[in-house]
Write a structure and sequence with these properties.
There is one protein chain. Helix content is 78%, strand content 3%. By secondary structure, it is mainly alpha-helical. The protein has one domain. Strands 1-2 form a two-stranded parallel sheet. Helix 1 runs antiparallel to helix 2 and helix 5 packs antiparallel against helix 6. The radius of gyration is 16 Å and the shape is globular. The two termini are 24 Å apart. 18% of the residues are buried.
């Protein structure tokens, strides 16, 4: 029960990270998958077959990479929100710098992830999730 609860907390915070780019969504979903995988087959299967993010998480966990389109959308959204936040809402220079350092770090991580060619993505979309 402790692992299911911990996995659910990681999942909840990860879902907030979908909207708030400073929160690392993928690492939190991976931690949720680890907790669920060690405690509940049902929760683990639900996580990896979730229509919103299951396919991407499954591909990431199994080393198949991330589609280039997803990487591009992620980076555009990340930089738009970080830039808007830093310029409009943050007055302290050190905090603005920190936001841009975080954005650069996330950009480096996303850019170094293995990419998928469009043919791989199309083929995977027509396969049933495991």
């Amino acid at each position: 029960m402790l692992l299911i609860g911990t996995g659910s907390v990681f999942l909840g915070v990860g879902m907030v990270g979908v909207i708030v780019p400073v929160l690392p969504t993928t690492p939190l979903l991976i931690l949720a998958a680890i907790c669920y995988g060690r405690s509940s087959r049902r929760c683990y299967r639900w996580l990896l077959t979730n229509p919103l993010f299951g396919r991407y998480l499954d591909d990431y966990l199994h080393g198949r990479g991330v589609p280039w389109k997803v990487k591009a959308v992620t980076l555009v959204f990340l930089w738009a929100v970080i830039a808007l936040s830093a310029v409009v809402f943050v007055e302290m220079l050190w905090l603005r710098i920190l936001l841009f350092v975080i954005a650069a770090s996330v950009t480096w991580h996303v850019a170094t992830l293995k990419g998928q060619r469009s043919s791989e993505c199309e083929r995977r979309e027509h396969e049933p999730a495991q």
